[in-house]
Amino acid sequence: MTRRRLLAVSVLLISAIALAPRAATLTAAPRPAAATVPAPEYGPPNGTLFIGGGSTVGLPITLIEKFIELGGGVDGKFVIVPTANGNFDGTGQVRVYVESQVISPWLNRGLKNVTMLHTHDPKVADTEAFVKDLREATAVWFTGGRHHHIVDSYAGTRTYREFHKVLERGGVIGGSSAGATIQGEYLVRGDSSGNEIVMTEEPNHQKGFEFLRRSAIDQHIDARNRWDDLIPVIKKYPNLLGIGISEDTAIVVKGDQFEVMGKSKVAIHDNTRNYRGEKPYYLLGAGDIYNMKTRQVVTLRHRPTTSEPTGTARTRRDAPLDVARGALSAVERAGVPADQTRSSAASAPPIPLELSRLVERLLMNAGVDESWWQIEAIDVDADGDIDLLRIHLINGDTMVWEIRRQPSTL
Fold first, then answer.
1. CA distance 300 to 314
2. First and final C-alpha spacing in the chain
3. In this predicted structure, what is the pLDDT of residue 351?
């Protein structure tokens, strides 16, 4: 490059710098705004919900211990609400609760700070003096009974608002049976005349306390055969998620997700799915984690069939061949006549070819990476033989198949 050209380039550079506006001066780039985490649509933004399905002889110790842990352990401040047991006795007299009797089971668990909260009068529930203990509570427990009594005492009062503030502070609200249903948005079995009425016409008993929003919660679904009872509720209110919880079983809710704990099943009534088969719901078991917002199973811990050793854990990533083998082995056991022993599976009559193909086709449709599956082998009459095989497959559409054993052939 010649001297003249170098000079020309220098002049252009100097001119560009001199004429550049001051706004062009280099400055530090602004930091991007922190991503805003959307508020949960179902569970509380803070705090935890413990929702139990009831029990025939009392909740398992492991579930009670989990609630105590969530409430701050033995040093937490626990408030027990026995109101679901009734506000009036059979003669119309105000029911009196003895605090020492109500809180003694909790003191026996080693808790140091436990108080009872109860009134039949919503005017009392609306006073500052009544909610004094609630203001410092780390945990609230609603007992079983009839949940419309809870509504009669606390709906719309200062107490109701303080229940929600327990969650805002990061505490836990729990309950079992009636103490579970009260936590939902729609009050299943809220009718004051009896719990056999699933959807009441009483306007003051149709709404729960909405700790778990957009939900309808039922309980005792196994022992009381309530598996199908949420179907008409979700049909009428398709925006709700139906959650039916068996005895000795609970869900622990954080935000929009919950985990299943306990011995039995949770039935999910999800109106956003297209169902094929007999039942418009599907089941979750202990260890399963479910996202209510996306209506998806986040984690599935497969419950073993009778063909698997107790304690064996399988996931949806298991090889399809292993899945099919487990399913077919269970079907073969289901085909053993009633007069044969459990150890005679090897000599069981041949499984019908069309049934074998049916199970293989179902598992093929379910897939292994984009769906989850569950097989239940049930001994209905406790004679040691499998009487009922339920296959749950969920992949876009949901299929629930039931195969029952006949006296001599499947």
1. 9
2. 95
3. 40
Separation of alpha carbons 281 and 271, rounded Å: 9
How many other β-carbons are positioned within 10 Å of the β-carbon of residue 279? 19
Q: What average pLDDT is seen over the chain?
A: 77
Query: Is 305 exposed, middle or buried, given 0-12, 13-18 or 19+ CB atoms closer than 10 A?
Result: buried
> Taking a C-beta distance cutoff of 8 angstroms, is the pair 174, 52 a contact?
yes
In terms of Cα–Cα distance, which of 384, 376, 371 is closest to 402? 376
Helix (H, G, I), strand (E, B) or coil at 366: helix
Closest by Cα among 189, 190, 193 to 221: 189
Buried b vs exposed e over 310-341: b needs ≥16 C-beta within 10 Å? eeeebebeeeeeebbebbbbbbbbbbbeeeee
Model pLDDT for residues 260-293, shown as the tens digit of each residue: 999 999 999 999 988 876 688 989 999 999 999 9
Q: Which string of DSSP letters, residue by residue, matches 270-333?
A: -TTSEEEES-S-EEE-TT-EEETTTTEEEE--BPP-TTS-TT--B-TTS-HHHHHHHHHHHHHH
Cβ pair 195, 163 in contact under 8 A: no
**What's this model's pTM, rounded to 2 decimal places?**
0.70
Cα–Cα distance measured from residue 107 to residue 137, given in angstroms and rounded to the nearest whole number: 16
In contact, 398 and 283? CB cutoff 8 Å: no
Q: Are 151 and 182 in contact (CB under 8 A)?
A: yes
pLDDT value of position 322: 44
Q: What is the DSSP letter of 94?
A: B
